[in-house]
Amino acid sequence: MKTSLHTWGLQHCLGGCLLWLAAAPLWACLDQHALQTLADKEMQYLVQRIPPAFGDAVADRLIQQNIDLKDAGTCSVRWQLNLPAADIAEAQALLQADPAKQIMLAAQGYQIPEQSNVEAEFVVDPANLQPVHREILQTAPLGKLRASVELMYAMLTQARTSVSGQPSPWTQAELQAAQSSCQQQFHADKSEAACSCYSRGLAEKYSARKVKYNRYLQSNPYAFATGNGAQFKQLDKSLQASCGLTQ
User: What are the DSSP E strand ranges found in the chain?
Assistant: First the structure.
């Protein structure tokens, strides 16, 4: 009786166990929650690394992402970004207006996305949700995606620093953030009043986003060397003097 029960168990387990074994690599690799966490980590990496025009496009929900498991055996995933067509067209026009720069970047392996949908496949370590292989910017698929999107939004950030028409009004939160930053950066006899003067002066000429883009240029010597941001720098110095601020 014991033998027959043992045999029955093996026979009935065989089909189910084989199905479980076949599904095991999928379960052991990445479930849907892990995939979403991986995609969110990669997006956060880009927001922190890429010039601020990218983060604003993400905040405006102009950029969407999607991720799926391509091969459970190797834990390979495909990550896709859908970029605004208007941003691509603007960046392409900027690059075409500077043929020398276009040739130099192409020689170094950099290029701007040519279509809204960009994607990369890469192998993931499920233990830490990191790419297994080092992603070299100009060669590996994920690195190439990162580099092309970074190049595009670096150009857009630089191009969007100049004054164009009446700036959009600042929110109270943006004004408060600017005043707080001013008080940390500058000194004055009456710091609160001086920084209020300074922040209002910026808001009369630039939107809060354009100020952010110009601040990025000031912190990035290569970007500032392009000639963008000179107008903002002049206003910045003028407001510091007229509002009674010193560094």
Answer: 64-71, 76-82, 117-125, 130-131
Measured distance between the N- and C-terminal CA atoms of the chain, rounded to whole angstroms: 92
Tell me if residue 150 falls in helix, strand or coil.
helix
How far, in Å, CA of 105 to CA of 95, rounded? 10
pTM beyond 0.85, yes or no: no
Q: HSE on the CB side for 212, CA within 13 Å?
A: 15
**Per residue in 111-122, pLDDT tens?**
899 999 999 999
- Rounded to an integer, what distance in angstroms lies between the CA atom of residue 243 and that of residue 144? 46
Write the pLDDT tens digit of every residue in 60-76: 999 999 999 999 999 99
Residue 242: closest CA among 195, 204, 184, 208: 195
Single residue among 102, 128, 159 that ends a domain in this structure:
159
Q: Which of the 8 DSSP states describes residue 50?
A: S
Domain of 236 in residue numbering reads as 172-242
- In this structure, the answer to whether residues 128 and 177 fall within a common structural domain is no
